[in-house]
Amino acid sequence: MKFVPSVIVKACALTTALSAVSFSSFADSPNFPHISTTGYGEVVAKPDMATFSVKVVESTMTAEQAKATVDKVVSSFLTKLQSAGVEDASINSSNIYLAPQYHYPKTGKPELVGYRASRNVTVQVTDLTNLNKYLDIALGEGINQIDNIQLQVRDQAKYQEKARLEAIKDASYKAKSLASGFEKELGDVWKIDYNAQSVQPVLMRSMAMDARTESSTYQDSTITIRDRVDVVYQLED
């Protein structure tokens, strides 16, 4: 069963300033009566894709053995992913990281006790229903650490546009309400300040290497996409 993104749109009512001079977020202060408003909007969407990062870590007595073990696990994992239908473009495998491990006695020089090797693999999941299957493959092939799972939404630009339009409506509504409350007429827009809002994906960390423990949690999660706009309106007598 495929997940279909569902959207709930709402506007957040926050404080709006009414003044004869602009507040600090507007560098150029107009010399006429005006209202400065900030509009907020947000879209709540159900995730339908994900990106997860896993790592295999191995410590052995020799660098060659540590590297060989890690490379074997990663190679097997990538082969199984490709067999499961994951495209090469959706997989990113890092180079191996190899570091000596030392024991530090209270006296004397550090003692070399072995080598630690690790490699990361990041996988983009275009169908969220396959996430559990890919994580199970990782477990079965010897991956011993899940770094994170980022839940995401397809067509993010479309949802960002919805949030932006809600922010514009919110700013306009506040300006009209304030002008009416102070028995003033709302004039034209004098200035618009806009900075695109960054979207934070839903980040989940697995405390244990068991993909099933997170399954119900990420399937029921939502992503909130926010936007804002700062607007200065002229006031008419």
From TrEMBL:
<dbReference type="Pfam" id="PF04402">
    <property type="entry name" value="SIMPL"/>
</dbReference>
<dbReference type="InterPro" id="IPR052022">
    <property type="entry name" value="26kDa_periplasmic_antigen"/>
</dbReference>
<feature type="signal peptide">
    <location>
        <begin position="1"/>
        <end position="27"/>
    </location>
</feature>
<dbReference type="InterPro" id="IPR007497">
    <property type="entry name" value="SIMPL/DUF541"/>
</dbReference>
<protein>
    <submittedName>
        <fullName>Oxidative stress defense protein</fullName>
    </submittedName>
</protein>
<keyword id="KW-0732">Signal</keyword>
